[in-house]
Every structure is written in C-alpha cells, then in structure tokens.
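Input/output pair, single chain:
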Amino acid sequence: MAKRILIFTNHFFPENFKINEIADFLVEDGHTIHVVTGIPNYPTGSFFEGYGLFSRNHERKNEKFTIRRLPLIPRGNGSKPRLVINYLSYAFSVWVYTFYLTFFRKRYDIVFVHHTSPVFITIPPIFYRWVRGSKNILWDLDMWPDTLNALGIITSVKITSLLEGVMKWIYQKYDHVFLGSKSFLDRAKSRIEAQNFSYFPNWAERIFTDTVSVIPENKPYFPTDIKIMYAGNIGEAQDFENVVKAIKLLENEPITWLMVGDGRKKEWLETQISSLGVTSKVVFYGNQPLEYMPYYFSKADAMFLSIKNEKIFEMTVPAKLQAYMGFGKPVIGMISGEGAQIIEESEGGFAVRGGDFESLVEKVRQFRNLQQIDREAMGNNNKAYYKENFSLLARQQQLRNILDN
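Output:
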C-alpha cells in the first residue's frame, strides 16, 4: 500500500549519500516522499554551484517526489567553531520547518530519519510523531557520543553520560532503528533491551555494481606504476597522519597513490606530501561526480581505506568498502575491527590494524609482487562476497517489510 513518507537527512543529492537511492527506491515502489535536507555543501564546505539560500531550495522531481532544502551556514574550512555553527543553523531550520509540517501540512504516514552526524536531526521528528502519530524509523550511521569521544571533541565524563542518556531516549522514541554495522547493533542493544533494532549495512550504488563507466571530459592523467586509490572524504577520522608515513617509506618503489575526493584535511594532506618530498608519488583528483567514479576505480590496481585506531571506529564499516567490493577491486585497509574482518573474510585483499603504517607498507609491497591473475582473483572474491552480504535488493526488501508492518 502506497504511503506518504517524510525523509529527514543532513545530506542529499547532489551530495553523495546512500539516502539518495533509498528515496529513489521508495518512489519506484509507489510511495509519495518529501525530503527535508540542507543546502548541499559537503565535503567542500561551500554551497554547490547552482544552490544557495534563495536558489533551488524547493525542487519537485515528479508528482511524488519533492525536496525542501533548508537554510544553513556552510561548513567552511571544517574548523570546530564553523562545524558547530553549521550544525546549529541547520538544527534551527529543521525545527522551524518541522513545526510548519506538523500543523499546516497533510499528515505523513512514516518519517524516515537518515542520521549521519550530528544527532540533532533525530529530535524534531520525535515531536512530529508525538503530535501526528506517524511511524518513525531511524537509520543510525554515527554512534553518538562514541564518535565525539574518539575524535576528541568531547572529553568530559559528565557530558558523555548526558549524551548517552539522550541517545537512549531517542531510541525509545523510534518504532524501528536500523544500524549500519553488526558492532553498532550490539552497542545499541547494550543501551536498551527489547527495542526494534535491525542490522542494515551499506551497499554500493548501482553504478558500481553495473560497472557503468563514463569518461570525464578532461581525460585525467594516470601513472604507469602500481596504483593504490583512496576515494572519499579526506577528513580527521581517516588517519592520514599515518598514511603519509607509509607513503614516505614507499617513495622509492613503483607505487603511486591516487586521491579522489575532498574534505577538511585535504589541504593539510597536500602540505604534508609536499613537505615530505613525495609529491611525485601522490596524485590528487579532487571531488568527482558519482557518474565518473567507476572510470576512476577502473584505473586503480587496488582500492585503499583507512580509519583511526579507536574503539568506535572498530565498530564502523566505511561505506566506501562496499563500493570497492561491489566494483570488484582488491582492497587494502588500515582498519581494525569489523571492517578488517570483512576484508579478511572476503579473501579480497589485505587488512592491517588501524594506525599500523609499517604493516601497511609490508602489505602494499606484498600486493605489488602479486601476479595479475592473483589480483583479479581478489577482485572477484570481493564481488562475490558483496553479492552475498551487501545486496541492494536485500536492503530494499528489508525496508519494504518494515514499512508494510
């Protein structure tokens, strides 16, 4: 039965997040959806071209699919004060707009909340549910306050305890909670018993599993060395401090690192690469449209991911891992916990403990010495593991079951 669904999300197209495909899927299933999001500015920190406070803030893709982009102050250079202003400005806009939806618009049957960070976005939908009696679903992809502790944003035991209580209260106010990793699922269950929790992992966008390749007009340069590619956000959690140490140790070997993406640490990374004298070993391609990403992937010999060696990140499975695997590329990871376990189980690459750059160097050398047939076997193993464990069709059916019940 078709339903009216309200989606709250911090990020939406043209920003590249999985909620984009959830929205498309819901419309394909005949539902009417209204997406509430901010003006796109992630990860560059500035409004995307064509978007602003007074432009494209209300879009109608078709009669069943509308998007409301609320005003906010962009992330800027990603400094802590600027991020706080960004978060609070959007939180204020969401509260005002939720009040309007609650009292002046036709009722929505279901509210679906896509929580990356911060957690503020989860609270206005609780108010909507209280007044309008909707069914509320939370897709929790960032475990607060654990992430804040790991990044050193919050060190106070009292504030941590307060946020822990807030998260328990939030979980109690949702009819169903999806968690992005099995470790997150266990962590959530440790907070509240007898709650409706489900494991709901990420998947690769269809463009990766279909291996559709659109060649960029500028025809980017690619070196002839063994190419190790990182694709995604260049941020604080990705532990580039240790990545650059590995790059330096490998500077005299036929290995080049390809960086596709942007983020608050990109300028720092470029400066470090220059100061270490290894600019010839790293190529930066900047942020690229999603449709170009399969082309970039196809040029890599192996895909790379890293994340800091913190307890919270042991529970995290970066979404890029599914994209790497779905495309069928070998994966090299400097990551602990569940992400490392997936890489090892798939037999599609190498994983070393987060922060262990010396072991990373050894694994990169080991990969370099593999025969091409062995690298292809790794990629095929990843593709098979992806189909068995992270299928988009499985997530669609899982969501259908929750919506119907």
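The first strand starts at residue 4 and ends at 9. The CA atoms of residues 352 and 360 lie 6 Å apart.
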